[in-house]
Amino acid sequence: MISQVFTTSIAGEPELVLETHHLHLEAPNWSQDGRALILNGDGVLWRFDLATNSLDRIPISGVPELNNDHVLDPDGEHVFLSAHDGHIYRAPLSGGRGVRVTNETGRLHFLHGVSPDGGTLAYVGVEAEGDNRWARANVFTIPSQGGPDQQFTFGSAPADGCEFSPNGSWIYFNTEAFSPGHAQIARIPAEGGEPEQLTFDERVNWFPHLTPDGSAAVYLSYPAGTLGHPGGLDVELCVVADDWTDPVRRLPLWGGQGTINVPSWSPAGDRFAYVAYQP
């Protein structure tokens, strides 16, 4: 499998910045200084320097093997990480020992967002039911230094990809609450309330990411009938304005899981990063 990391503006041509046959890279964040992309691959975290084209492992200790859910702390010095033990950790972005944030709840914790002030994490809590490990997936928050969890969605309709708006007033996410088996983008007030549906189409839509000023967003769109968020499909990245009407751009690629699971806009909001794959 070939991993191809691209950056692109809202309307411009994608630029291939990294290609590798040796690592299955996923989920690029953009560093706050705009100089690097942070990605996961082979269960660890990597830093890709956009000026020198160097890809270096970030030496994080005390954390189990990572999945592809990682979000940078607004302080610019730390990163929040989801690990395969089902917990979320905070670690120095330059490398060092991680500290667990999440509680022993019986849920699996999948990180997707951090509030603009860095004080709160938004995550998806997954609970098992019998042999179904993924029976319930709901949106929760937790203080980024640890503390009590708060639940935002309820029931068995799966939710995922929860991310704060730049002003901290909303949590954006994808959910099947409006149409079982058919994920659409929604948002919910950050203080709690009723979800508001934002996309209304036949495609299956995941992982909304807003620009730093909130003027646009990009999300991952699967073909109609797709269950979950698998990899290895013909998908689209859809760019919308802040009114969430029809996309102003559809970018087709081969990917899905790993393509754009995490916030991936540049600090200036003029470009976003994503991963495409080639068999």
TrEMBL record:
Protein source organism: Sinomonas humi
SUPFAM superfamilies: DPP6 N-terminal domain-like
Protein name stated in the entry: Biopolymer transporter Tol
InterPro entries attached to this UniProt entry: 6-blade_b-propeller_TolB-like
